[in-house]
Every structure is written in C-alpha cells, then in structure tokens.
Amino acid sequence: MHLAVLATAPGMARTARVRAMPALRRWPPGLVPAGVLVSALLVASACGAAKDPGGVGAPSSSAAVTVGSVPAPGSVPRGPADPGTTSAPAPPRRGVAGKPPRTHDPVLVATVEDLQRFWAGALPAYARQPYRALPPDGLVPFDVDALPPPCGGRSRSYDQVRGNAFFCPPDRFIAWDDGEFLPRLARDAGDGAVALVLAHEWGHLVQDETGFKGEPLILELQADCLAGMWFGHAADLTADPVLGPTALDSSPALAGLLLLRDEPGTDLRAGDPHGSGFDRIHAFERGYRQQRCFDFDVERPSVLAIDVAASPSAPATDRPYAEAWTASVAVLNAWWSEQRPGWRPITDLRPFRRTEAPAMQCGPDRWISQMVAPQSFLLCPSEGWLAYDEDLAHRMEGTYGDGALLALLAVQFAGMDAGRAAGSPGFDLFAGAVARECRTGALVHDLVAGKRPEWALTVPDLDGVVAAMLYTRPVAGGGPAGGVVDGFLAVRFLEQGFTQGVGSCDLPAG
User: For the chain, how many helices (H) and strands (E)?
Assistant: First the structure.
C-alpha cells in the first residue's frame, strides 16, 4: 500500500494515506478531555492496569493546598457485597484536602499552586484580561468510589471518565482520575507528566476565560501550547524542590503527554481529536519556546491530517517483548542493507543496567563506561557492537508499544551508520545527527506504508515512535555545537524523513 504525504504551507493540513483504525468512542457533550489511555496501551503494558499501591506523599511545607491523611468517605476498600445488594459511590469530592493520599500528591499540589500564580500574571500580559482563579472546589479528584459531579447537568459513570482528566466549562471545574490514571502516569512517565496533565486542563480553562472558539483539534493543540507556556516557566524555577528542571524531567514528561490523546488516524471532524504526536509536540514547542498561543485564530498550527477513508483497517502491533525485539533487529538490518551496499549487520547487542555501570572496550585503546557517559545506548562503530539499557527498552515497549522499541533501536542503527562515516573528509557532526533522526523517520514511513513484509507498523505506533525520540533527549538545549539534537529538533527531523523520504536526509556536510 502506498503512503502519500503532501507537504503544505503552515496552517494547512499535511495529508498521509494510511491504514484505518477502529473508530473511537466520542466523549459526551460538555466534557473537554485531556485524552484516554487507549485499550491497546493497557494491553501492551505489563502492569498498565495496576493501581497505585498508595503511599503518603508529603506536600511541601509552604503549600496552601493540602492533601488529607484520612481517606474520604467511600474510598476505603469495600469487602464483598451481600447477595442482592449494591454499594453506591460516595458523593463527589471537591478540592484535594479530603482525597486519599497518593505518591504523586507533592507535584500535584505544587503544580496547582504554580498554575494559579502563573496565569494570574500571564493572562493579563498575553491576552489583556484578568484571570479568575479556580476555587478549591473547582478541583475534583475522582476514582471508582467517588465519581465526578455532573457536568452541564449530566452525570457520567466511572467507565465513561476512567483513565482521563477533563475540564468542565459549564460548571468550571477540573477533574482527573486520581485512583488509576495519575498514579500510573507518574510511575511510567514521571512527575512531569502529572504536571502536564494539569497544565493541559488549565489550558482549557484559559480558553474558557478568553472565549476562544475553534474546532476540537485546534482547541486541543492550543491547550498543548498553553501547557508548553507554563512548562517553560517551570523550567526556570531552578530553586524549586518539586517543580523546576531538576525535579521535572521534561523529556519523559513530554513523551507522557502523548498518552493523553485520541488515536492518530481518527477522523479530524470527529469529537475531541488531539492530533498526532508530531502536531502535539509542535504545538507544545510553540508555547515553550515562543509563548505564542493566543494567535491560533490568526496563525493556525500546521496539522498532519491522516486520511483513512479509502484504506483497510489494520490491528495495532502488540508483540511480546522478545518477539518485538527480534523483529526490530531483523527489519533494521534488512532496511539498512538496502540503503548501504556492504552494510555490516549489527548482531552484537549487549544489555546492561545503569546500576551496574559496566565498562566496555571499544578497540584496543578505548573504553566506554556508563560511569563516565551515563547514556541509554553505547555504540562502538569500529567493532560493530551496540550496548543498551535493558530496563529502558522494556519500559518503553511496555508503556508506548512496539513502535517505541523499534524507534529506540532505529536511532542507534542510524547512529552506527553515522559513526562509521565519521572519519570521512568533511563529515559534520550536526549533519550526521540530523540524518540519523531523519532516516529513522523514513524507515518508519516504509513500515507504516507496508513496504516491509517482515513488519508493518500501524498508525497508533507513530506516537510511540515520537515518544521514543523524546524520552532519551533533553527537550530543549543543545543545537549545532557538538552535534547534539534536542527533543524538539529530533521530532522535526523525524517528521522530515517520514513526510519527505530518505532522499531528504542526506544533508550536505558542514
């Protein structure tokens, strides 16, 4: 099947023809969802459906918002119900003081307080209107025992809001699944992902304050942009023990943002699409770097619109880890053999764990040590071996799917190619790094288009690929000096290869 990608001017859709995905459930009117952890992710993750084991997280001493140490009514686990009886859920919780304590509470409390302070200054500065602070009862943590209040007069069951967070415009409250969703997100993507869930929902609140209107996709991308504005501010809080660049690891957090979305490939006219991983990261970057989120009505974001109308449906890839690993190595060696005549297949892959910090010999005089270079991957182009963080590989595949595992390896295979060429006259480190990300995108394009019989990726795998690009890189910083490509640039070069093909990746040497 052919995958046609049309490059367009900013503000116009970039169209790709790919395999269709099953239609997703539309959310009931009145809710502005942050997104859903789709069932494919829950199946792919070995512990995806596990609940947070609990544990009391002590908020910072200066926090005005506190988390109670006594569970709210109805939150204590119930025993087996008597035959013929049912247990009604407890009344909705208002505020966070009475909710059951969770390990993510410190970042939740600090984020809420800082979002209030930030928008009290930023909304007048950027939108020229005052900010109405969200009152304590506008924060609604829910779980299976205490459902959120009605939104716009309509009540929802837990199954309708499970694994989600949302802003309710008619009743002006932000609600989130505090029993399963945030604990799992904190475990899999870190505290920064918890902060971004709240920042995204605050983006919808800011939209409501400014009266911004638009189709669902644009509303979601603007909320990502507004979250980026706040996250850029949080990155400057260098002395904050809970927020700030040290406490909030931005790369896993931004990868975690991609868990909050509808499946890419759904009809853009359908309710509440969040856009592809490419679109979301570009919108977030616009807020993070430029603080330009209030002109979406004038300068609309460029969108990769995936047309699935004439394409057959395809199941999401969901292999066991060992099978996904073997298939990834095989398809990467096959693809590179076609790209590089005389390609020496990479078969020597060495797992390590960061806690062990092994030293590995590369050539007669060079040793590579995790203690000196704490990286997730170590390459030895002269001998053709690749060492990898085994825990990271398992975690990425379990959380983000097969596409993430493939992308982690694909970047390293492209890095091996660049490393082998590093001694060539005129070789430029930055150009080599650009080509590495770009060629990964071209490979992914071929797999999504079904050009490799060994393994055809599907549309949901794309976000896993983007997540892998982000997870092991700093979100911002770096640049041409030293050949370092940061997370934002990596996603742009990945998209370049995906939309324009491998021919666009051979950039002239510096």
Answer: 14, 12
